[in-house]
C-alpha cells in the first residue's frame, strides 16, 4: 500500500484570510493527501508541528504581508531541526519579486492567486520526499 503524502497547511500568525487555503486543504484531502491544517502559529510552532506530524510538505498561505520574515524563520527553523528534506511551498498574496527571492532561499514554489489545486497537488507529488517513520 502506498503511503499518503502528509501535508501541513498553515496560516502564519494572525493572517486571517483563509478561504483559499481551506479550499486547498479540502481538495488535497479529496485527492488522497493526508492534510493537517493549523491557524495562527508562529514559525517555530510550524516547525515543531511539522516534525511532530512527520510531514513531507509545509505549505504556508499568507495574504497580509510579513511573509518574508515568516518564511525566513520557518526555513531557518527547519534547517536547525535537521528537517531540510521537508518540501516548503507558499501561496496567497506574495509579490512576484518576493516569490523569486523566497525560491532562492529554498521555498520550492510559490502559488499565487488563480493557481489551481490540481497544480499544487501535481507539484507536491512530483517533489515531496516521502519516507515516513510510521
Descriptive terms for the model:
134 residues; alpha/beta; Rossmann fold; five-stranded parallel sheet; 5 helices; 5 strands; 43% helix; globular
How would you characterize the overall build of this protein?
The protein is α/β, with parallel strands linked by helices and 134 residues long. The protein has one domain: Rossmann fold. 43% of the residues lie in helices and 22% in strands. The protein has five helices and five strands; from the N terminus they run E-H-E-H-E-H-E-H-E-H. It has helices spanning 19-30, 43-52, 67-80, 96-105, 117-127, and strands spanning 6-12, 34-41, 57-62, 87-92, 109-111. Strands 2-1-3-4-5 form a five-stranded parallel β-sheet, with helices on both faces. Strand 3, helix 3 (67-80) and strand 4 (87-92) form a beta-alpha-beta unit. The model has no long low-confidence stretch (mean pLDDT 91).
Q: What is the structural class?
A: alpha/beta
Which geometry do the CA atoms define? globular
What is the CATH superfamily classification?
Cobalamin-binding domain
Q: What would you say the CATH architecture is?
A: 3-Layer(aba) Sandwich
Share of β-strand residues: 15-25%
Mean pLDDT: 91
User: How many structural units, i.e. domains?
Assistant: 1
- Determine Rg (CA atoms, Å): 13 Å
Order of helices and strands: EHEHEHEHEH
Largest sheet: 5 strands, parallel
Q: What CATH first level would be assigned?
A: Alpha Beta
Q: Low-confidence parts, pLDDT < 50 over ≥5 residues? A: none
β-strand number: 5
H/I helix tally: 5
Q: Which fold name fills CATH's third level, the topology? A: Rossmann fold
State the helical fraction: 40-55%
Distance between the termini: 13 Å
The side-by-side strand order for the widest beta sheet comes to: 2-1-3-4-5
Amino acid at each position: 500500500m502506498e503511503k499518503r503524502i502528509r501535508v501541513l497547511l498553515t496560516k502564519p500568525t494572525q493572517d486571517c484570510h483563509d478561504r483559499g487555503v481551506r479550499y486547498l486543504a479540502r481538495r488535497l484531502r479529496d485527492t488522497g493527501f493526508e492534510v493537517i491544517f493549523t491557524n495562527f502559529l508562529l514559525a517555530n510552532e510550524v516547525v515543531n508541528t511539522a516534525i511532530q506530524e512527520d510531514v513531507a510538505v509545509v505549505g504556508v498561505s499568507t495574504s497580509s504581508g510579513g511573509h518574508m520574515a515568516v518564511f525566513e524563520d520557518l526555513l531557518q527553523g527547519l534547517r536547525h531541526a535537521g528537517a531540510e528534506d521537508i518540501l516548503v511551498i507558499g501561496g496567497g498574496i506574495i509579490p512576484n519579486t518576493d516569490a523569486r527571492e523566497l525560491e532562492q532561499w529554498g521555498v520550492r514554489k510559490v502559488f499565487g492567486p488563480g493557481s489551481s489545486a490540481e497544480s499544487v497537488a501535481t507539484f507536491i507529488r512530483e517533489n515531496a520526499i516521502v519516507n515516513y517513520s510510521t
